[in-house]
Structures are given as structure tokens and as C-alpha cells.
Amino acid sequence: MGLKGMEIEMDIEEMIFGGKAVGEYEGQRVVTSYGIVGQRVQAKIKRVRQTHLEANTLQVIDKSPVEIEEACPHSGTCGGCSLQGVSYQWQVESKNEQVKALFSERKLVPSIWHKPVKSPRIEGYRNKMEFSFGNQERGGQLTLGMHQRGRRYDVVDTAHCNLVDEDFRHIRTATVTFFRERQVQPYHKISHNGTLRHLVVRKAAFTSEIMVNLVTANAPELLVNEWKERLLSLELGGDLASILWTVNNQVADTVQSDHIQCLYGKESIRESLLGLNFTITPFSFFQTNSYAAECLYEIATSFLSETDQNVYDLYCGLGTITQLMARRASKVTGIELVTEAVQQARKDAQLNGFENCSFIAGDVKETLDQLPGKPDALILDPPRAGVHHKAMADLLAMKPEKMIYISCNPRTLVDNLEQATAAGWHIESAQCVDLFPNTPHVECVVLMSKKEAN
User: Fold this and answer.
1) Residue 304 located in a structural domain
2) CA nearest 26: which of 9, 13, 14, 5?
3) What is the CATH number of the domain that holds 286?
4) Of 137, 163, 169, 402, which is most buried with the most CB atoms under 10 A?
5) Whole domain around residue 254: which residue ranges?
6) pTM of the model
7) 3-class DSSP assignment, residue 34
8) Closest by CA position to 146, among listed 386, 442, 445, 439
9) Where are the active-site residues found (predicted)?
10) Active site residues
11) Domain presence at residue 74
12) pLDDT tens-digit map of 351-392
């Protein structure tokens, strides 16, 4: 009998960055979908490789000795937070060691590896949550929450999610109750029947302004206005500043807009970071943990000095880092692909009183020739895919004095760092900043220079 499809039991001996875990079965290395060191799990082998077996974890048989805290009641089924129940100190140290291992595999050796930075908040820290409508059981009642672990279409009703605060939970519960009462069906990803797709809730950590965005395939306007009134009747700790309705008739299961309508308030909310104000629009990117983002940005800006006259901030989004860097550098230019984000960044920079900020809308690979002169420093904060190889080569060829790389995906970070060190760059320092407690994810900020190592 072949190994593929076999169900096995094994002890988790190692964790790999990104949430996967490693055990052993009859002398063979097994990489499974999730697990915590010290657990005994049941797993199903899905693929046989030359060097290892790939598996999906089916269930945890015995807990790990490091699981010492009470987990969220959804932890057994929800696919969101695989490190719940583990002490936070252990989480941070484990993620730091996993990122170090990625560096070590590529022989990347920073002069200084700083201690990891903890999030100021461990629970209730998210300023955005994208809930999905669905059914936890086929033919069952409407659910609203997160996708079930290991199952692409089933949705767990996450009424008690610990990553968000009470206002998120009130809005989620009021919404799913409203549509259950009216027997409105979720949008089915295969048949494309049904109406309800997503509920996106944002709450600014430091201003408490709340935005709620209901995403549907189609819905009578009278119905969404009734839903709006239900939300306005809620007693919330924050300020419900924006209620939006987005129509998305695309096949892809992503939050996007064919049409958006403001049902109440305004089409944006305001957040404050390190004394600056930023405007968050429905589809703009903003770090999901404002508390830890302040720690991350303070580290990044500390790498600049008054001698840095010309700084480029690539993948700048709403210009958050651009404006914070403008406090220290003489001139900062941000580049961002999303035109809407660039337009908003320009407005916010003006409102924050910066005259040394400018922004270019376009792809980094295609706009480098528009940049004004040789940079003293480059700031990189790319999407999870990292910097395209050709774009990275062009950036390195610009020969700035220093490069500050902020990454939400250390796996692609080390790809770019390997390319940089091969071109003669030196990694001065690296540091993990935990923006995602109770999950396997972490941010990493790296300082590089063209100078020779001492």
C-alpha cells in the first residue's frame, strides 16, 4: 500500500515559518499543515516527495506542554489563529527563531540581530476584519466569520473572535442575525447563486472611528437600508462614522467593487499614528495592528539621519511611512501602484503640514526613471510577494547609502536579501516586530548598507 492517503500519528518536533509543522513517521520527515511543538497529531499524507512527506493535520490528539492558556472557543475549527493557548512570550521567541532559520538557510548574517518586539496588545488588536458569509454545515443556517481550517468553502461563525474588540463582535452578530431573520442566502462560490459575500469592519485604534462595509452580489436597496438602521441602533464603544454597501458581481472570492454606495456618514475614517493623521478608505491598505505598527515605524525611521537628503519610499500605500520619514529627511518621494492611495496620501501630507513629500502613482519597476536624482536611502515595504527580481536589481544599481526593508513575509524577504548580498550589500541589522499575536505571522525590518562589514 502506498503512503499517499494514509492517516498517521506523529509528534510535532519543529515549526516552520508560516504555520507548518514537522514530525517523523517511520524514519521519514513529515511536513504537515499546522501544529505546535510538543503536540501529538493525526495527519493524512497528501503527497510523497523525495526528501519528505507532505500532510494535512486532521486533529490534535495530545496538547503541547507549552499550551498553558485558554484558547478562543473557535480555535479548534477556525483557520485564523493557530498559536492560541500558547504563552505570548513563547510565541514571539518561536517566530523569531523561525525567521532566524530562514536567514541561516541562505547564509545571511546580520551584524546585529535585535531582540524581537512584542505587540503592545495581544488580543483585540486588529483594526480591520474581513468576515465571510457562508454555512458551517451544508444546508445549515447562515454563518458569518472565518473560513474553517483546512476547508475552502465552509465558514465558522466566529462570534467570540479574540483578535477584535467588542464593537466588531456586536456589529458581526447584529448583521448575521438581521439576514438570518430575512432568510437571505450567502453567495455560493461554485454555483454563483445567493447574495451575501463579506462584511468588512474597520475601527481606528487611536480615534475609535468605525467603518462597516457590506459586500453583496446583489440586494434590494430597501433591505440594506434596514440593515443600516439595525447597526445605528447598536450601543458601541467607538464612533460609527461610515456605513457602506459594495456590490461585487465578480466570480473571484475577493473584496472588490463594481459599485459602492455610502449609506451613512462618510466614505473614510481617520486614524492617528505617532502624532500624524491618516485617512483610511474602503479598499486602502493600512497595517492591521496600529499599536505595533507604531513600534515598527519608530524602528524604521530611527535608521534615517539628518544627512539623508533624498529618500524614496517604494510601495508607499497611503504614505504612512513616507510622512513619518519626512520628519527626519530633507525630501521623501513615495511610489504606489494604487492611484486612489496616492491621491489620498497627497491630501494627508498637506493636512499634516509636510512640504517635503511627493508621490508618484505607478508600478515600481516602471517608474524608477521618474525619480529625482540619486537616493541617500531607499525604503521598501512590498506586498507578500516581495520585490520583483528585475526591480530589485534596478534598485541595487541606484547605489543608495542605505536600504531599509520592511517585510510581512520573511520567505520572500530572504530571496531579496540574497540578491542584495550577492551584489555587495551588507546586512547591518535585522529585527522581528510582532504585529500578529496568536498567529504564525510576523513582520521583519532590515537595515542594509553598501559599506563593507567591519
Assistant:
1) yes
2) 9
3) 3.40.50.150
4) 163
5) 128-269
6) 0.91
7) coil
8) 439
9) 408 (nucleophile), 408
10) 408
11) no
12) 999 999 999 999 887 887 777 778 999 999 999 999 999 989
